[in-house]
Amino acid sequence: MKSQPDLKLLATFMAVVRRGSMAEAASELGYVPSAVSQHIAALERETGIELIVRRPGSRLILTAAGRSLARAAETLFDATARFQDAAHAIAAQEVVELRVGVYPSAMTYLLPRVLATLRDRRPGPRIRLVVVETDEGVPRVRSGDIDLLVAYRYLPEDPPLPSEALAVSVLGSEPLILVTGAEPALGRPVELADCLEREWVSGHANNPDRRLLHRWAGGLGIAPRVTLETDDLHSMLAMVRAGPAVGLIPATLLGQGGDTGVDRVVLPPGVTPLHREILAVSRPGARPPVVEDLLALLGRAVADVVSPEAAEGRQ
User: Fold this and answer.
1) How far is CA 298 from CA 114, 118, 279, in A?
2) N or C: which end of the chain has fewer CB within 10 A?
3) Maximum mean pLDDT: which of 65-69, 141-145, 152-156
């Protein structure tokens, strides 16, 4: 017996099984009855065993071997059909699963509503989320472990940058808000001058947010005293709430009641507020439609952080 079955002969055999006669199978396939008979004979020669009992004047009867082959052939053709469906979907740039890396605060504040909307639009693809910081996620995009990375960039010269291995697009800019512990007794808005002698909280010395803070402060001629260091934004916000500490907090963390227990610091006239870029990082090449939809929704979500009024108008 051949190691690989002749699919044409198997297809004829399955038509005979379905129809119960050579003539009806021939009609279904567009063959003459003698061609069907020849196919069945050839298949029996290949298998080396009788598959169908032929009795004049009665319907054909499958042997035990014929029944076993029919079950195996049905499984084979089902698998072939699924393979063809998958191949057609891939050719149409559809995906079954999309692996998306996302930094923690975006996972908490940006993704839930975006994914709910996306599932209503495209219920098919499965979105598998991986919580990962930008510096750890970029190599995983290059390696193919992650299909799309939602990332941030504090300074324009910092990675991720477009390259032969990476496609980088800007989804929007997220404001960085200077906040300090709430001081109701002050009786007026907290100003930058009130914060110069306080403890400041930021990332570690070489972190992008720390370097951005010092670059910005240097341009203003001030030198913040960073004594509290953490890479976790929620911990940073907790330190600000706990005392008269000062820190730059991404706007997403301050929405929906996140600014409870803090005061926003009023900047002097003419001082440019800070922001960080929100990016989409993937490998170069055409993006499936589900990715384009996801990026459009994320861009809208980032814009809503800047302009909550616009978000309310779309609801």
Assistant:
1) 7, 10, 10
2) C
3) 152-156
